[in-house]
Amino acid sequence: MTPAPVRLTVVVASVRPERFGPVVAEWFSRTVAERSDFEASTLDLIDLDLPIDLSPSQGAEALVSAIGAAQAVVAVTPEYNHGYPASLKVALDTVKYEWRGKPIGFVSYGGISGGMRATEQLRQVAAELHMVSVRDSVAFPRARRAFDEQGCTSNEAAADSATRMLDQLHWWATASTMAASVRPYPGQ
Ligand SMILES: Cc1cc2nc3c(=O)[nH]c(=O)nc-3n(C[C@H](O)[C@H](O)[C@H](O)COP(=O)(O)O)c2cc1C
After folding, report:
1. Does 121 sit in the ligand 1 pocket, CB within 6 Å?
2. Whether pLDDT at 26 is above 90
3. Which atom of ligand 1 is found nearest the CA of 111?
4. Is 98 in the pocket of ligand 1 (CB under 6 A)?
5. DSSP secondary structure string, the chain?
6. Nearest CA among 13, 188, 15 for reference residue 102
């Protein structure tokens, strides 16, 4: 029997009016769609309008529900001042239990570093949220130059990294789902 595809939520982190994030996120979603072992959906933080004071809102409910339904998460994030955007921190802080026991991967972009400093900071936060950040991540240095008008890229390293990251996310998502069916994750 073919196992059911892993439910992956792709979070688009940047919310600036002139943001580049959707180009990167759409490339990644197309990359995932080439595989039959994932069923991906996109959650764009610009649509949720999450309150910075973490008070209840429709957007917060939608976020909790989407993360609750996911078996794995990928954050598509730029680098701002050697960190990740405040919009992503608000999203991470808005959800509590639904992150737990799930794997997370990162697709970053930015200037010369490709957003890797944002990714490394996010690994610390992921650990606090009881998530497993997978080893491989995708990075796009000089992101605006890395994509053509159609949103395609010839960055082979990114495509290879995406394959490895998705393989690792799949392994952890399958393992954590099986484990949770035997014993709930501690602290749920
Ligand atoms: C406030 C701000 C700070 C930035 N800081 C960095 C940085 O520290 N390192 C870097 O590589 N790029 C930096 N950049 C460039 C962004 O990573 C790049 O413009 C990216 O496209 C931003 O993502 P967005 O367009 O989806 O918001 C910064 C951009 C902004 C707006």
Report:
1. no
2. yes
3. 11
4. no
5. -PPPPEEEEEEE----TT--HHHHHHHHHHHHHT-SSEEEEEEEGGGT---TT----HHHHHHHHHHHH-SEEEEEEE-BTTB--HHHHHHHHH--GGGTT-EEEEEEE-STTTTHHHHHHHHHHHHHTT-EE-S--EEETTHHHHB-TTS-B--HHHHHHHHHHHHHHHHHHHHHHHHHHHSPPTT-
6. 188
Is the CB of residue 20 below 6 angstroms from any atom belonging to ligand 1? yes
Task: List, in order of start, the domains of the chain with CATH numbers.
Answer: 6-182 (3.40.50.360)
Residues in the chain: 188
Please tell me the predicted confidence (pLDDT) of residue 1: 66
For 130-148, how does the pLDDT look when each residue is reduced to its tens digit (9 = 90+)? Answer: 999 999 999 999 999 999 9
pLDDT 10s digits, 63-86: 999 999 999 999 999 999 999 999
Which of the listed residues 11, 81, 82, 116 should we mutate to test ligand 1's pocket, taking the one with most ligand atoms within 8 A of CB? 81
C-alpha to C-alpha distance for 184 and 176, rounded to whole angstroms: 10
